[in-house]
Specification:
Blueprint: E1 2-8, E2 13-17, H1 22-33, E3 39-42, H2 48-59, E4 63-67, E5 70-74, E6 82-83, H3 85-90, H4 97-105, E7 107-111, H5 124-132, E8 136-140, E9 143-147, E10 156-158, H6 164-174, E11 180-184, H7 190-201, E12 205-207, E13 214-217, E14 226-228, H8 233-245, E15 249-253, H9 264-269, E16 273-277, E17 280-284, E18 294-296, H10 308-315, E19 321-325, H11 334-341, E20 345-349, E21 352-356, E22 365-367, H12 371-383, E23 386-391, H13 393-397, H14 403-409, E24 413-418
The chain binds uridine-diphosphate-N-acetylglucosamine.
């Protein structure tokens, strides 16, 4: 079992290139299944979630090869429509393959994703939308058996909440449907635009992605294409949090500053100097951060729930009190108990967390219970005095490529220890 051992405090400085977005890569891999030809996805991060998606595609019969940061996906040999329970359990977001498999094969079988580290993870919006598109779905014994009589049919779908995964599943199911699909109250995340851009480059007719109404005119066939995955905005926010808590000065390359608009004001409010240019973000932190009045997680363009844990870790050492309101997931404060072990002063009541800034954190053994919560512990560990040992590293590896190497490039004393 691996742990991350972090000796702090350090002041991060230097330059780093941020990898491609995990949350774009997964739906893009599902989209490649829909095509009649090979596609190549560039800027694909080396992450365990991407490995699981690779195994799913191979299981369905696709040929998938990695060359550096590029994934070559040939969907022509695909002939299966079932995702085994083991793969569904490894990555709850495998549900994003449902729309693509249905469109390609006319049927799909997979287990119900069920609950996850962030609390219950319902897929009612996905299923309701797919039913609107003519899919017949049987939910029995934890298993979803779906069939499409004839072809997927375009329809108007109104999402009661702008779910990212449901919007992606509808895009994937509707791209080759008969007729026109209109999604109202669609998710507006940059990853939705990336998916629509890929599909359009393959011949789809999708307009309005990035806004609340997306119109998809179904096409007969999609060819393949070459596509560069957008930058990972959450990884970027995590490295910025790490630099800020350590009073650091870092320059990140390969980022998409526009996608960071919901998070950059938070760094400015706590006293950091920021500059963006092209694909670069530069952050210089003050000796001590100030508190941030309140952070409410919301669908894009609101503050992203995935950035809440690392930013909370950052604010544990700020002067003053910061308030968080988590509106997206029920169980997204699991990192709080572990941050307390490092000396943080945080109180949670329901959706609200009150972070009373303290002047010193001290190293301790802590355990990552989920991906972004794990990143929060690493952020705090960089500024804590002494050694912080973070277990549950497999969660962190789902979303951060070589986190210990990247932090070391910025001057951190972090190593991966196997026992
Ligand atoms: C995606 C991201 C995840 C991020 C989340 C919110 C991927 C692989 N994951 O997850 O990192 O934290 O967006 O930005 O892209 N909901 C329902 N019924 C549904 C679907 C969702 O009630 O059918 C609820 C969820 O429980 C949650 C909220 O809607 O409370 C947001 O979920 P959603 O936008 O679907 O997130 P994911 O696509 O699962």
């Amino acid at each position: 079992m691996a742990t991350l051992q972090i000796r702090g405090p350090v002041r991060l400085s230097g330059e780093l290139t941020v990898h491609g977005a995990k949350n774009s890569t997964l739906p893009l891999m599902a989209a490649a299944l829909l095509c009649e030809e090979e596609s190549v996805l560039h800027n694909c991060p080396k992450l365990s979630d991407v490995d699981v998606s690779t195994r799913i595609l191979r299981r369905l019969g696709c040929k998938v090869e990695r060359q550096g940061a590029s994934l070559r996906i040939d969907p022509r040999p695909a002939d299966d429509w079932e995702i085994p329970d083991t793969l569904m359990r490894e990555m709850r977001s495998s549900i994003v393959f449902l729309g693509a498999i249905l469109s390609k094969m006319g049927k799909a079988v997979m287990s119900f994703p069920g609950g996850c580290e962030l609390g219950p993870r319902p897929i009612d919006l996905h299923l309701k939308a797919l039913r609107r598109l003519g899919v017949e779905i049987c939910e029995d014994y934890g298993c979803l058996t779906c069939t499409v009589p004839g072809k997927v049919k375009g329809a108007s779908v109104n999402l009661s909440f702008p779910s990212v995964g449901a919007t992606e599943n509808i895009l994937l199911a509707a791209a080759r449907a008969e007729g026109i699909t209109v999604i109202s109250n669609a998710a507006r995340e940059p990853e939705i635009c990336d998916l629509a851009n890929f599909l359009n480059a393959c011949g789809a007719k999708i307009s309005g992605a990035g806004g609340s109404t997306i119109v998809i005119q179904g096409v007969e066939k999609l060819h393949g294409c070459q596509h560069k995955v957008i930058a990972d905005r959450i990884t970027t926010a995590t490295y910025l949090s790490a630099a800020a808590i350590t009073g650091g000065n870092i320059l990140l390359h390969g980022t998409e500053p526009e996608h960071l608009l919901p998070v950059l004001p938070v760094f400015e409010e706590c006293g950091c100097t920021l500059e963006t240019s092209g694909d670069m973000v530069w952050l210089k932190a003050p000796r001590r951060l100030s508190r941030v009045r309140s952070i409410r997680t919301m669908p894009y363009p609101g503050f992203p729930t995935d950035a809440q844990p690392p930013v909370m870790a950052m604010l544990t050492l700020a002067s003053g009190t910061s308030i968080f309101v988590e509106n997206m997931f029920e169980n997204r404060y699991k990192h709080v108990g572990e941050l307390l072990r490092l000396g943080a002063n945080i109180k949670v009541e329901g959706r609200v967390a009150v972070v009373e800034g303290t002047s010193r954190l001290t190293g301790a053994s802590v355990e990552a219970a989920d991906l972004r919560g794990g990143a929060a512990l690493v952020v705090a560990g960089l500024a804590a005095h002494g050694v912080t040992t973070v277990s549950g590293v497999r969660h962190i590896d789902r979303g951060y490529e070589s986190i210990e190497k990247n932090l070391s490039i910025l001057g951190a004393d972090v190593s991966r220890v196997f026992s």
